[in-house]
Automatic annotation (TrEMBL):
Source taxon at top rank: Bacteria
PANTHER family linked to this entry: ACYLTRANSFERASE, TEICHOIC ACID D-ALANYLTRANSFERASE
Record-annotated membrane-spanning stretches: 6-24, 53-69, 81-99, 119-137, 149-168, 188-206, 311-336, 357-374, 418-438, 450-469
Lineage: Bacteria, Bacillati, Bacillota, Bacilli, Bacillales
Enzyme class: transferase
Pfam families documented for this protein: MBOAT
A Gene Ontology biological process term: alginic acid biosynthetic process
E.C. code: 2.3.-.-
Subcellular location: Cell membrane
UniProt keyword list: Acyltransferase, Cell membrane, Membrane, Transferase, Transmembrane, Transmembrane helix
Species name: Neobacillus novalis
Record GO cellular component, one term: plasma membrane
Keyword Transmembrane helix: yes
Name of this chain's protein: MBOAT family O-acyltransferase
Length: 480
């Protein structure tokens, strides 16, 4: 069930919202929370009920291990239990997400013939696995004795963030559940939720899905692309991913506000970044936060000298690449960002500042090129696309210009047929100006005030989006 679908917007969400607040009127918060957890699990299993036992088992085992950690006194035994918990979660993720990738490479390198399992990747496993690893580590460090199984299940399964983030910290959810004022309907939160949900829906349905058509057309016809076509194709994906992920983050925040749960910001205009470090502070913020607190700091952070700092930076970017997908394109994408992070860290030691425009261009250009690896299904596609983008042999004048040149100079250039209308270049300039200079939705939400103009604005965005829901498509981060 997708946020951008009729069944979610017109059936599932209204029913869950109405029943939840009706049950709260019974003066028993636990009944309402049990209902919402059940609704979360229904939402999760809607795609495939076979996923349900996996997430239920994960919740049960992790909560049991956390309970043991809270009761055990000996440090050595606590470390053993924590290690078991981390290995269980990584093993679960590795089995479903990476087994076939690993065995494929073993077969290729050693000439083996190990059978592949062809397992379907359980929805959201990368997200709920990381959240529960963080929970176990925090239980080991500071304890979580005050949490009930119901609160824990709510934290893991809350449907606005369940499928594609943000990767929430347990206190960000459970502390709000413990605030009694959050168990009544708040009109201000509902208005804010409608506002940012409508913006996110428009980003996804109208902007991202339109860009997806151009990106997919280009990648599906990669052999016939000209130099200009290749740049249009890759820019279409660069902006598609931006609005797709940004739209999901907005919709998740909006849905959370309906239940008085404020989810953390996960996206903050990353294409405004002036360096790669700033980019990762703005893109998938909660994933970066997870890697910082639960990998970078335990590895030593920046406390053990420059060489170790560079190594730690590289490791978290490398792991980020693997986390995003089981394939060499994702591995190399992570390596590229790791190398870029190390280079930037080294550059900072010289205390030299580039002009802002130059710094922005270098950052955006690098991120854009790296997205080619992220989008491509294999390294062969990467090679072809990058060759198209940077080889003058694939540059051709448009048909009208070719005709003028032939007429004036008596040449015999063959007119070129472009896959895309070259007016798209102008459109991309406009889109780039918006993502670089305009206020983002999180900034607008902070200053949001209900009024007639905002009602008209929300209504317009929603109506336009609903008209195009017939071309339903998954969010890109669902596959991770």
């Amino acid at each position: 069930m997708l946020f951008n679908s009729y069944i979610f917007i017109l059936v599932f969400f209204p029913i869950v919202f109405a029943v939840y607040y009706l049950l709260l009127n019974l003066k028993n918060k636990n009944i309402a929370k049990i209902f919402l957890v059940a609704a979360n699990l229904y939402f999760y299993s809607y795609w495939n009920v076979k996923y349900l036992p996996i997430i239920l088992s994960s919740i049960a085992i992790n909560f049991t291990l956390a309970t043991l950690l809270n009761k055990i006194q000996g440090l050595h035994l606590k470390r053993t239990v924590l290690t078991i918990g981390i290995l269980f979660n990584i093993g679960l993720l590795g089995y479903y997400k990476y087994y076939d990738f690993f065995m494929t490479n073993v077969n290729a390198v050693f000439g083996a013939n190990i059978s592949l399992l062809h397992l379907a990747l359980p929805l959201a496993i990368s997200f709920f696995t990381f959240q529960q690893i963080a929970y176990l580590v925090d239980t080991f460090r500071e304890g979580t004795k005050e949490y009930t199984l119901l609160d824990y299940a709510f934290f893991v399964t809350f449907f606005p963030h369940l499928i594609a983030g943000p990767i929430v910290h347990h206190r960000e959810i459970i502390d709000q559940l413990r605030d009694g004022s959050n168990y009544k309907m708040k009109s201000a939160n509902i208005a804010s939720g409608l506002y940012i949900f409508a913006i996110g829906l428009f980003k996804k349905v109208i902007i991202a899905d339109t860009l997806a058509e151009w990106a997919n057309l280009g990648y599906n016809n990669i052999g016939s692309l000209t130099l200009v076509d290749s740049w249009i194709t890759t820019l279409a994906y660069t902006f598609q991913l931006y609005f797709d992920f940004s739209g999901y983050c907005d919709m998740a925040i909006g849905l959370g506000l309906f239940f008085n749960i404020k989810l953390p910001a996960n996206f903050n205009s990353p294409y405004k970044s002036l360096d790669i470090q700033d980019f990762w502070r703005r893109w998938h913020i909660t994933l970066g936060r997870f890697f910082t607190h639960y990998l970078y700091f335990p590895l030593g952070g920046n406390r053990k000298g420059n060489a170790r700092t560079y190594f730690n930076l590289f490791v978290i970017m490398f792991v980020s690449g693997i986390w995003h997908g089981a394939g060499w394109t994702f591995v190399i994408w992570g390596i590229l960002h790791g190398v870029a992070s190390v280079i930037f860290r080294f550059w900072k030691t010289f205390n030299i500042r580039l002009p802002k425009l130059v710094a922005w261009f270098i950052t955006f250009f690098f991120v854009h090129i790296a997205w080619v690896f992220f989008r491509s299904p294999d390294l062969t596609t990467v090679k072809v696309m990058l060759t198209k983008m940077f080889s003058l042999q694939s540059f051709h004048f448009p048909a009208r210009m070719t005709a003028i040149i032939n007429e004036r100079f008596g040449t015999h250039f063959i007119p070129t047929t472009y896959y895309f209308d070259l007016k798209l270049i102008l459109l991309f300039v406009v889109i780039l100006a918006i993502v670089v200079f305009a206020k983002n939705s999180i900034e607008r939400l902070k200053t949001f005030k209900p009024g007639y103009l905002t009602v008209a604005f929300i209504s317009l965005l929603t109506v336009i989006s609903l008209m195009y829901l017939n071309r339903v498509s998954e969010f890109l981060y669902f596959k991770f």
